[in-house]
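SAMPLE LOG
Freezer: B-3
Tube label: C17
Construct: single chain, 193 aa
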Amino acid sequence: MGPFEYLMMFTAVILGLAVCDLAVSVHRLLAAAARVRWDWLAPLAALVAFLKIVSQWWTFFNAGPLAKGLTFEMFLGVLVASVLLFLLAADALPDELHEGWIDLRAHYATVQRRFWLLFAAQWLLLTAVSTWAQVAIEKAHLDLLSPAWLVLPAALLLALWKNRWWQTIGLAGFAMVYVAQYFGQHLGQGLTP
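STRUCTURE (predicted):
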């Protein structure tokens, strides 16, 4: 096992636990299906969290060349971003299924602001660490005009807007972006860390 694999194993455990939390939450909801008041926003948020996890994991595959130049601070940033992603996934669906009705609409209304703030914080931190590593190690140039920077204001606006249709458009839009981003690619093909 090389240095990159050794370091990323810790991050992979955190991301794996996030997927496990999503799967357990879905299992609990399906087991209590008769008591669940279904709504589309919470499952859509879970899908976005899942696709965000898969996207991050996929991107890590191509980050191997940067591993030897990673500093402790950069790696700590990657770990914190992974923990934020775990928290995002944990917020998407309810964990505790108490007696009585489980209202997914009410759950999403409760966690909506925190979900999008975690989304924005995770994206900003991971983008900052990735840019820092690319500039420091590969002497890349900072591109502040990239359309990817629209993610941050979109997530912050979604944290503030309670409108269900805007929430639906935002969640569906991010789900499509995460799928389209790597659609049809093979591991290592055209990826940037």
